Amino acid sequence: MKILYFTSTGNNLYISRRLGGELLSIPQLMKNRDFNIFDDVVGIVFPVYYATSPKMIREFLKEVNITTDYLFLICSYGSDGDQNALKIMAKTLKKKGINVNYTNSVLMVDNYLPIFDMVQEKNIKDDFEIDAQIDIIKNDIESRKEYRLFKKSFTDIPHIEKVLEKIMTKRYHIIVGEGCINCGICVKVCPRANIILTEEKPVLADNCEFCLGCAHHCKNKVFTINNEPNDERYINSHVKVSEIIISNNVGD
Ligand SMILES: Cc1cc2nc3c(=O)[nH]c(=O)nc-3n(C[C@H](O)[C@H](O)[C@H](O)COP(=O)(O)O)c2cc1C
Ligand code: SF4
Ligand code: SF4
After folding, report:
1. In what order do the strands lie in the sheet with 22-25?
2. 2-157 — its CATH code?
3. What pLDDT, on a 0 to 100 scale, did the predictor assign at position 168?
4. SUPFAM superfamilies this protein is in (predicted)?
């Protein structure tokens, strides 16, 4: 089994690890232009961004060829839009002649700093339920269950993902403040190689995914988001920042 995953704060790496198999990071596959995936079972594990998948995954799906007997899609999400994201991805793959056998989603901490308070999120979504959700999915995959839900939700407005992405990216932006100690972590966790480190502070280029990895993983809280509720940050408690770096460091 091969699992293709994308993560910023570790939730999807945690899910992928618990499901087992060979883990392949999508930013690394993109960097190496490695687009031919073969295995008896293949999964794509990703976070929901604006009721769809992150831009990088949509770019990856345009290029990828997947040959498998059983393909599953799992997304992690914090509030809503999971079924919309799965539906869009299954449709995209179908257009390429790739059949999806199973989709499901895992409710986890919502790492979207402009709206969600990380203190509350960490308190509300405890590990027990998350592990239980993943165990059900693991059993389903092991028994090669055929399942696609796409249940109704408020994000069923046509093209909601386009509307959300447009409004939110216009409304919220990353502010680079003071206090940088030049540790280089933000550069290494960025899946887009979008950060350049100068002597005083990091500079963001114009290829941002808004994954917020730089903000969550900078210990000195140099990155803030306009109007965010507070400066609490998040990393999945089972994942180390060194593992996020292995997944996302696409620099030279
Ligand atoms: C830019 C952005 C947009 C997001 N949009 C949604 C959304 O529409 N619906 C939702 O439920 N969660 C949304 N989230 C939350 C993430 O999907 C969720 O926290 C996910 O588990 C993060 O996975 P990771 O830890 O592997 O990066 C968003 C997060 C980011 C950074
Ligand atoms: S992670 Fe923070 S302290 Fe480290 S280089 Fe980046 S901005 Fe500076
Ligand atoms: S600059 Fe920050 S938010 Fe943008 S892609 Fe890189 S890590 Fe993510």
Report:
1. 22-25, 2-5, 41-47, 70-77, 102-107
2. 3.40.50.360
3. 95
4. 4Fe-4S ferredoxins (SSF54862), Flavoproteins (SSF52218)
